[in-house]
Amino acid sequence: MFFRREKPREFLFEDRLESLKQLGMATGKKGNGKAAVIRKGCAAVLVDQGSTVGIERAGIVLGHEVGELTHGGYQMFFITPTGVKEPALAEQLRELHLFLEDLREGLGHDSLYNTSLGTTNQRHMYDRVQGRDPQGGHHH
Length: 140
Known about the structure:
Layout: H1 8-22, E1 26-31, E2 34-39, E3 42-48, E4 53-62, E5 65-71, E6 76-79, E7 85-87, H2 90-107, H3 112-115, H4 117-128
Antiparallel strand pairs: 1-2, 2-3, 3-4, 4-5, 5-6, 6-7
Helix pairs in contact: 1-2, 2-4
């Protein structure tokens, strides 16, 4: 196998970060095979997994942390690792949806999730956030 590369891992990770930059994301190394990507208040922590790049956390920027979307029963919240909790606004949910779509595309995560669930997920989230849907037209 003469085409074997000595360091394929680093190349793939760098390559993926480069494609995310093309999608308008700012990227920064965190060391330990991790990197952070940010765009319009949305952020994700990525992990180099060799043949793929995994998403460790994804959500919105709250202080110096990433708040992940959490279902609170009657409302959606963003919660950080240290317990900071903010109610999710419709605009943030829209931005996060677009961010995650581009993130999956840039990382090459072309899975069933990307083609099916990913597109209905947004509306699904809005239906659960009472009175926050700017389009209206829902049965309340």
